[in-house]
Amino acid sequence: MNKQLTNVIGDPPSRAHKIKSLMRFVWVLCSVVVLQSAAFPTLGQTINISEKNTSISAIFRQIRQQSGYDFLYNKNLIKDVKVTVKLNNASINQALEASLKGLGLTYKINDKIIFLERHQESAAKQDSMIYGLVIDQATNVRMPGVTITNVSTKVKAHTDVDGAFEIPGEKGTRLLVSYIGYETAEILVQTADYHITVNMKEAVNVMEDVVVNGIFTRKKESFTGSAATFGKEELLRVGNQNVIKSLANLDPSFKLVDNLQFGSDPNRLPDIQLRGQSGLPDLNSEFRSNPNLPLFIVDGFESTLQKVIDLDIYRVASVTVLKDAASKSIYGSRAANGVVVIETVRPAAGKLQISFNNNINVEVPDLRSYNLVNSMQKLDVELAAGIYSGAEPSDQVNQLRQYNRNLEAALSGVNTDWLAQPVRNGVGYRNSIRAEGGDAAFRYGVDLMHNKITGTMKGSDRNTLTGAIDLSYRLNNISINNILTITSNKANNSPYGSFENFARLNPYNSPFDRTGKLQKIANYNVKNGTETEGGVLLPDNIPVFNPLWNGYIGVLDNDAYTDIINNFNVDWRISSNLRINSRFSVTKQVTERNIFLPPDHTSFGNFTGEDVQRKGSYTKGNGSSILMNGNLNLSYLKQIDKHYITFNSGVDANTRESENLSYIIEGFKDKDINFPSYGLQYQTGSRLTGIESIRREAGAFASTNYSFDDRYLMDASLRFTGNSQFGTNNKWGTFWSLGLGWNIHKEKFIAEHNIFDQLRLRGTVGYTGSQDFESYLGMTTFQYIQDRTYLNGNGSFLVGMANPNLRWQRKKDNNVGLDMTTYGGKLNLTLEYYLSYTDGLLTQVSLPPSSGFQMYTANLGEVKNTGWEGRATYSIFKDVESRKSLSVYGTFAQNKNTLIKISNSLGAWNKGQDTIKSNLPKLRFIEGQSLNSIWAVRSLGIDPSTGREIYLTKDGDETFEWNADDQVAAGDLMPKLQGNLGFDLQLKGWQFNVAFAYRWGGQMYNQTLLDKVENANIYNNVDRRVLNDRWRKPGDQSFFKDIANPEVTRPSTRFVEDWSELTLSTINVAYELERLNFIQKIGLRRAKLGFNANNLFVISTVRQERGTDYPFARTLSSTLQILF
Questions:
Q1: Its family (predicted)?
Q2: What's the pLDDT score for residue 42?
């Protein structure tokens, strides 16, 4: 090798000189060619054309094919123009001059794009026009159907099939260029020839001007349906706890039903209604917990309410609420109750950026609704009620001795605030961090979140840990995306049990003995009991257990779940008009439930004899489910002159399998031995139980949107769905919708007045369905006899009769809406009216005894809902450059439902409810009445002479006897009007947001007056109104009956009260720290510090206890957002 190298280096000088000379010549030749090509680009193009009397557009096509140059021009310039052209080895300039000769046209070449326009002399006679071309930045493909808006004149134009547009304007004009799925571009026209090229960038999380339905997007401007979209910043302005609570503060039709029992319990799911109640409640455990629950879609796939509540609100990009048939019918049999579509934040291209969000939350118990008596007042009530008066002299002595002990405790200063014992100021936090970056081809996003909610009751909390990886890859016109999310959750319930256990205890009882030691029994109630000479109470006296005891003996009460969700998505943009999308999702969930009550728990305090060995119990539950969902969708759009058409179709299939097992073990010897296998036996009368469910569904849909000249609009959709839940004769169902709209502001007779930026009238009609019930209702089901056998086999018995005609509940939605923007965009108004009928409600149908079966499930009920809703926003002032703005807003909603038809079994249900002695109004199903009606007997008040209540019969006669047949619809829980009011202020980096929630009209049955005043158990604590408002002697004018009357008061109109309420739901204050110099110096791109307060006060016309099982809370939180 060395020898060869030496030979080359040692070549004769003459040979080396020849090689060098040749290299110089080649270099000079290449340089000349490059320079000539750069200086004279047209000389390298030769064009040959020979055409006679041919359209000039055909000539342009040949020039494009032979030269590689593109054309951009107004089609009207060459309409119906025919020319004769003969060219041989012509340059591009020669070809253009020959083709345009005598046409009064001229051309300009810029970056291989040929712009045609009228000759300057001709153009001077025309209005000034701006010409442009819109291109996808990533694929370099021309984009048709893009909307271009002149900011100053509001004139709009659209790109044609070649991505070209023209719009009136001049130098200095600002243009807004927008298209679904792309970021809106703002262009300042600065070129003297008014020719521009716009590169559109695909949007990451922009949801303005579009409606997202979870499968595809639609232009809001041409959409006829009813949908409300809220972005991330809007959601955070009205609360940072979870998406559901923020949404309730923004959309008046999205209602969280007041839960006066469970208050702010972090582990309790809210009851949600969207546009009223359209399903019957759960009467026989045949339905799920809430038959009115909307469908939740997260990133294109079905989710659960629990997962949505546990979702990190900082990961949410937008929430869209689909309300009418035109917007939700593509979901067919699942959409009757409305659809909530949630899109999460997608990775943004660019350098690595890291965002961090921190919230410190404080839950402050709100006990202001309680109005209980103190120790001395309670003793006065007891004396007046006569509970210390015994029937026999010996009983009287025992009762007076107990009174003296209670009086001694009260006089010694015992006045226990039992409400304060199990509560605390719960301090929790949420930390989330996100890293994202990438380029046009590959993007990534990684999320981590830990959310700890510490409840107001001691020992209650909720811990959620979530991790997500979002990867996107783009190769030319194919995009692949995969999101893997893993969530682990554990919820601990308070070991102290129900808050009501504390609210009922008397203040003269103490949780501690005289030495300060916690005691299990706070006191004894003596009821006709006896006493020994030593003063020791005998066991037949009733102990008053101290619920505080249970918090210190090792009680376990928790739920846990682990979710693994993988969403895979492929998007293929075949052309600028055609797109195919395919998605596949797998969700695996594992759940666990544990409740351990040690043997020393107060619930076992009365166990005696053989039952003592049964003390202590362990409830164990395990469940698992898997959901697989796949779909394939096609989207097509086309613009032909003033006609704009979009078409979407798709097929989908899903399967859900789940199983749950549970058992209760009893008989534990010690609080530290808390594993199920250490128990004695299954709970008496119980055994291991379980349930499994399989549901499969497949369907296809087609949806189209048509607009003419952006003035006349139409939406239509059709869906077929097959489901395994239904009867053999009704496996498939058809759902459809039709919507029409009119952009009135684009009519010349309106536009010329320049009053409205938007004035749209729209109307829709269509059908959707509901399938929120168990999977086996359409089948014949049997249950094995497991406690005995016959000939080594198990028998079985019928538990469910098949109904081959069982189908899903169908809801017909009619909706009319008006959208208006005026005063230069300052005032935005949306108004909606809807009328819906839900038929085929699932009810139980009674069968004759001869059938051998009592009832079966059928579609017989029918409900009607009517209502109004609206939203108005007014911008008082807005200065974008100085970042100053002030806007106010208000929303309202009104809904009324009517039960049109019921089955015979519901009539029997009504009669059964009437026989139950209770002070609560019973749920009744009466045709022609509301599902929210309050049923009670009309009352004339308390008779001053006897202290008894006087009722009115259905015939109008007075009576002292309560009769169920005399009940009337005395009120309705639904308000006449409800909604939100608020304002948003931005001022030099400061942000102030205030939101109120209100309800006006409607009624409530004041249960507090029953439980703590009228029917108060005098042995427990009572409301202060017992002191002065109960009848005591003849002649008393009182609202409440005789204080010594122990009879249960049945439902009476005395306790039906008008219910109006105002809640300060949110105060938010924030400051953008990046305005401070040191923030940029330490390398931060953005920093924001904020404070948020929720539910600071409630003003109500009804004085009642709120949060009887779990107290309500006021939430205070700080917020820190940092972007590196």
A1: Belongs to the TonB-dependent receptor family.
A2: 39
Q: How many CA atoms lie within 13 A of 254 on its CB side?
A: 26
CB atoms within 10 A of CB 798: 12
The pLDDT value given to residue 95: 85
Dist. CA 1115–CA 60, nearest whole Å: 69
Encoded tokens for 240: 């940072």
Six token digits for residue 930: 């509301």
Angstrom distance (rounded) from CA 201 to CA 185: 8
Using CA atoms, how far apart are residues 244 and 1048, in angstroms rounded to an integer? 39
Supply 279's token pair. 């399903």
Handedness of CA 329, 330, 333, 338 (dihedral sign): negative
Other beta carbons within 10 angstroms of residue 360's beta carbon come to: 14
Q: Residue for token digits 């099939």?
A: 161
* Residue (of 432, 431, 420) closest to 364 by Cα position: 420
**Pairwise pLDDT comparison (824 vs 395), residue with the higher score:** 824
State the DSSP code for 613: G
Give, to the nearest 10 degrees, the angle between helix 56-67 and helix 92-100.
180
The Cα 867–Cα 863 span in angstroms is 14
- Angle, nearest 10°, between helix axes 393-411 and 375-385? 160
> What residues have CB less than 8 Å from 315, skipping those under 6 apart?
344, 345, 432, 434, 447, 449, 468
CATH number of 229-349: 2.170.130.10
Is 329:737 a contact under the CB 8 Å cutoff? Answer: yes
Burial class (CB in 10 A: 0-12, 13-18, 19+), 878: middle
Determine how many CB atoms are found less than 10 A away from the CB of residue 256.
Answer: 15
Burial of residue 675 (CB within 10 Å: 0-12, 13-18, 19+) is: exposed
d(C-alpha 1027, C-alpha 944), whole Å: 17
Q: What does the block give as tokens for 168?
A: 């009136």
d(CA 1031, CA 1043): 6
The whole-number pLDDT of residue 43 equals 39
- Residue 955 C-alpha from the chain's centroid: 48
Phi, psi of 702 (to 5 degrees): -145, 140
pLDDT at 38: 36
The two tokens of residue 510 are: 């103490």
For residue 492 the two structure tokens come to 């601990």
Tokens encoding 752? 């010329």
Contact 972, 1001 (CB under 8 A): no
Under CATH, which architecture does the 41-119 domain have?
3-Layer(bab) Sandwich (3.55)
Instruction: Please give the mean pLDDT across all residues of the chain.
Output: 84
Nearest Cα residue to 394 out of 534, 543, 526, 524: 526
* Among 918, 899, 913, 1113, residue whose Cα is nearest residue 1005: 918
CB within 8 A of 12, min separation 6: which ones? none
CB-count exposure of residue 855 (10 Å: 0-12, 13-18, 19+): middle
Answer yes or no: are the C-beta atoms of 396 and 526 closer than 8 Å.
no
User: CA-CA distance, 934 to 955, in Å (whole number)?
Assistant: 20
Interior/surface letters 37-66, b for 16+ CB within 10 angstroms, e for the rest: eeeeebeebbbebebeeeebeebbebbeeb
Domain ranges of the chain: 2-39, 41-119, 229-349
**947 neighbors 1038 (Cβ within 8 angstroms):** yes
What ranges make up the beta strands (E) of 727-779? 732-743, 756-770
Helix, coil or strand: residue 289: coil
Longest dimension (CA), the chain: 145
Residue of 460, 498, 495, 518 lying closest to 674 (CA atoms):
495
Two tokens, residue 456: 């107001």
Kind and range of the H or E element at 1026?
A: helix 1025-1029
| pLDDT tens, residue by residue, 1051-1097 | 899 999 999 999 999 999 999 887 777 777 777 778 889 999 999 99
Radius of gyration (Cα) for the chain, nearest Å?
38
